[in-house]
Amino acid sequence: MSLDIVISSSSEKPIYQQLFEQLSSQIILGQLQEGYCLPPIRTVAKELQISVITVKKAWEELERRGLIHSMVGRGCFVAPLSSFERLDKRDEMAFDKIKKDVAYYKSLGISEKEIIELIRAFYKE
Amino acid sequence: MSLDIVISSSSEKPIYQQLFEQLSSQIILGQLQEGYCLPPIRTVAKELQISVITVKKAWEELERRGLIHSMVGRGCFVAPLSSFERLDKRDEMAFDKIKKDVAYYKSLGISEKEIIELIRAFYKE
Amino acid sequence: MSLDIVISSSSEKPIYQQLFEQLSSQIILGQLQEGYCLPPIRTVAKELQISVITVKKAWEELERRGLIHSMVGRGCFVAPLSSFERLDKRDEMAFDKIKKDVAYYKSLGISEKEIIELIRAFYKE
Amino acid sequence: MSLDIVISSSSEKPIYQQLFEQLSSQIILGQLQEGYCLPPIRTVAKELQISVITVKKAWEELERRGLIHSMVGRGCFVAPLSSFERLDKRDEMAFDKIKKDVAYYKSLGISEKEIIELIRAFYKE
DNA sequence: GTGGTCTAGACCACC
DNA sequence: GTGGTCTAGACCACG
């Protein structure tokens, strides 16, 4: 399998979400090219030692977001997306999160300046 | 009840966590002074129209973080914290989160510059 | 259980889709009022003699469409929708289908007039 | 190959059904004359870049409907149909679908008038 | 008690 | 061989 996925079963995040996040990143960043045929879900499940259903759930979410499309009997393929569309989906996925994050930072009384310094510091790591 | 809490039952966040976040903010920001006696959990539960168990869970989390301490038969009290200690706890609660957030932003290929612009924009709202 | 659902296991449609279609109709038509608490999925599953997972899948689709929202430990509730929003969702669900249907009718060489006569006839039944 | 077929691999419809629908339309509309010898299924498969099995399945469905008949070792031929018979088969194929469609429209609470307006609009496209 | 997640394993439609 | 659907049953988080 050529997928580059790491699953942490001890993570607080559900496995299907870890899968979704990693795959969606790779598609949005163009690391998986359009038309690329993903490995069969049963293969992915076996290699990651998780259930087929869990993989399926992640794939369904990817399809719902228009990042892949599945064809019975043929496999699942990375959707054709222009650079513009990829950027659009990326922003769509990031904005809501950032908005919530900022709301939380503010509720803790952390200043804009402090946040930005921390962001810069963690970005360099 | 003199607590200033707002619960959203339609939020995606569990109720106990909403409680915890709001109380911890207020303690960390010094809005609830040290030694202040919190209302009985049954009172809080009744006024917010939630389960006693839910309130208990939030209080336990606050105690675990050292923000309150309970005395059997007497009630729960805001812990005595110096300004320095409060800042320390605040940072402790914020750092891990920011670190994770930045990791996610990076995985989506968003630049440090973009993030900071968004943070600034959302901060002004 | 007060839900008014009929499942045909011999139908060509998947069970979860039958569930989804009937529930969504009832919500869109205002037959299930906003805030109404649906019976627990395990109860629905038992009464309809289908799997919990199948019910869950239908509920997930309803939630995705904004027709219900679920709260862990509390249940699933019909979303608050204005008459306008309900009409909007109804149209959203109907338009795509009608468009496809018309394309098929046209490919069979059936005239607009014939179709309309048939629609009228079946509508009266 | 003189067949006029377009296959969409990204369509939600199975390929064999796309094949069947297009061929049956052409036969019913008299675009393929009776006695016309269809190209060998291996030729069709190669030109459309699909599996022979898929073509075979579509051909079987056409034969089941009495639109073509196969003669071992000689090929598949468009069945001899009078104009009347063709109209009959067309209606047979359309009626069930329209009936189901109308049932669905009704379940969504869409009025006969609305449907007809939409049908007219989509027909003009 | 609720819903959320994950599992193993079956059968089907499609290619 | 592929993905799609359905099943039974487990464990967890939440209230």
Describe what this molecule looks like in 3D.
The structure is a homotetramer of 125-residue chains. Chain A is mainly alpha-helical and 125 residues long. Chain A has 2 domains: 1-81, Arc Repressor Mutant, subunit A, CATH 1.10.10.10; 82-125. Chain A has helices spanning 15-28, 41-48, 52-64, 83-107, 112-124, and strands spanning 68-71, 75-78. The first copy, chain A, has a two-stranded antiparallel ribbon. The interface between C and D is medium-sized, with 30 and 30 residues. The structure holds a DNA duplex (15 and 15 nucleotides).
Which terms would index this structure?
homotetramer, Arc Repressor Mutant, subunit A, two-stranded antiparallel ribbon, 6% strand, DNA-binding
The DSSP helix count of chain A reads 5
Number of distinct beta strands of chain A: 2
Number of domains of chain A: 2
How do the SSEs of chain A run, as a string of H and E?
A: HHHEEHH
Helical proportion of chain A?
A: 55-70%
Tell me, briefly, the overall form of chain A.
globular
Overall mean confidence score, pLDDT of chain A: 89
Quaternary organisation of the protein chains: homotetramer
The neighbouring-strand order within the major sheet of chain A is 1-2
Largest sheet of chain A: 2 strands, antiparallel
Task: Name the CATH superfamily classification of the largest domain in chain A.
Answer: Winged helix-like DNA-binding domain superfamily/Winged helix DNA-binding domain
The level 1 CATH classification of the largest domain in chain A is Mainly Alpha
Helix and strand composition category of chain A: mainly alpha
